[in-house]
Amino acid sequence: MLRRLLVLLVALVALPVFAQQTYVREFRMGFTPYPPSFDAAGYDQSYQIIQQHADLISHTFQAGIPWDDALISSSYRDYPASLQQEWDFLLEADANNVPGMARYVSMLPTNIQYNSLATLWNENGPGQPLGAPWDTAAFNSPQVKTALLNYSIALIEAFQPEYFGLGVEINILMAKRFDVWSDYKQLNQYLYTELKQRYPDLYVFPTIQYEHMLGLHDASRQLADYLSAFYPTVLWWEMYELMFYSDAFVISTFPYLSYNNQIYDGYYDLAFNLATVHGIPVAIDQMGSLSRDVDVGPVILRGSEEVQLNTIYYLLAACYQSDVLFAVNFFTVDYAENYGNNPISLSWAYAGLFNPDGTPKPVAALWDLFLAIPYQPPQ
User: In this predicted model, what pLDDT tens digit does every residue of 95-141 receive, in sequence order?
Assistant: First the structure.
């Protein structure tokens, strides 16, 4: 298969007309518009790259839920002014820079620590503490179900995506709060069922953090160890069960974050095998690899341009050879220390395909070779 890919890439360079007639790419390739700096120049740079180097744009919403407003309305015009401004900014930026480009939109119903419901977005802005009844509400409570359904409808109606993520890397919640996981699965079933009734052609799914599913992060490894005597398959079997209410097996993958873990032949077999059992495609909603080492305090996250090139090649080759909907490299441009110098911010600081000055890394040329293959929706 790798030889076939090399032949293909050579053909694309030497014989583009022949390649267009012979080869097709059945997965979309995209980015999020997270900018290298939070100013007009940063957003312009990110959108320009998406315009020239993608056929999918991804928006992920993780800053909180307007719980009170969403309980009674599925129109974002009834939500806090600051939320309306953020959505309007993104909608206008999309319309001005990537009109007509396919969209993937995802939301997070938990807080960013993955240990409770998402924080509140109200007139004071995002990230507000939860008050009654939300501070004690279960994931499967009627109020939470109604509010999240309305919020999901608001996102879908505003952004008109082709793909919708119900929960971002939601197995991290399972790892940290296994006591509420059954409640969350009921919420996922409810949202999926209701949304598919309203939007039958929309791809709807939760997303899974792949290295957590492999037990390569502390929280998941601890859960697996705790349940090893009577439920040794918990990390992947629970994802198998979750997929009964999903249109795709969607993963995020950052191998370098798992104690400098490196991918190997067969690294993604578990994802593809579980998808095959359910008869659904795979998608990669977040991926990335560092182009240089990053010191995050207790450890050094390893990276180089060669490692980045090899990692992204492996992922794109797997997408080309398999039943995959899309692949999203999370960042377009390195943001260096513009997001701060704390360990969490630095963890993705050099995972873009372009340097902060806009010059392409070696991996950008590889990305563009795959992008040059004409896209054809999967049959």
Answer: 999 999 999 999 999 999 999 999 999 999 999 999 999 999 999 99
Q: What letter represents residue 86's amino acid?
A: E
Average pLDDT of the residues in 245-256: 96
CA distance 367 to 289: 13
Going from the N-terminus, what domains does the chain have, and what CATH number goes with each?
26-371 (3.20.20.80)
Strand partners, 287: 253, 329
Q: What angle do CA 42, 44, 48 make, to 5 degrees?
A: 120
Instruction: Show contacts of 44-50: CB within 8 Å, 24+ apart.
Output: 45/332, 45/333, 45/358, 46/332, 46/333, 47/93, 47/97, 47/98, 48/97, 49/332, 49/333, 49/353, 49/354, 50/97, 50/98, 50/101, 50/332
Closest alpha carbon to 168 in 139, 206, 114: 206
Distances (CA, A) of 307 to 9, 165, 286, 311, 329: 19, 29, 17, 6, 15
Give residue-wise pLDDT tens across range 314-370: 999 999 999 999 999 999 999 988 888 888 888 899 999 999 999 999 999 999 999
Let me know if 301 is exposed, middle or buried by CB neighbors in 10 A (0-12, 13-18, 19+): buried
- Rounded to two decimals, what is the model's pTM? 0.92
Using an 8 Å Cβ cutoff, are 249 and 274 in contact? Answer: yes
Q: Could you give the CA distance from residue 205 to residue 176 in angstroms, rounded to a whole number?
A: 21
CB count within 10 Å of CB 100 equals 7
pLDDT for 144-176, tens place per residue? Answer: 999 999 999 999 999 999 999 999 999 999 999
Is residue 339 a contact partner of residue 359, using CB atoms and an 8 Å limit? no
**Which phi and psi (to 5°) does residue 61 adopt?**
-115, 110
Amino acid 298: pLDDT = 82
pLDDT of residue 139: 98
Torsion of the alpha carbons at 66, 67, 71 and 77, rounded to the nearest 10: 0
Ramachandran angles phi, psi of 274, nearest 5°: -65, -40
Which residue in this structure is represented by tokens 């050094």?
300
Please tell me the predicted confidence (pLDDT) of residue 176.
97
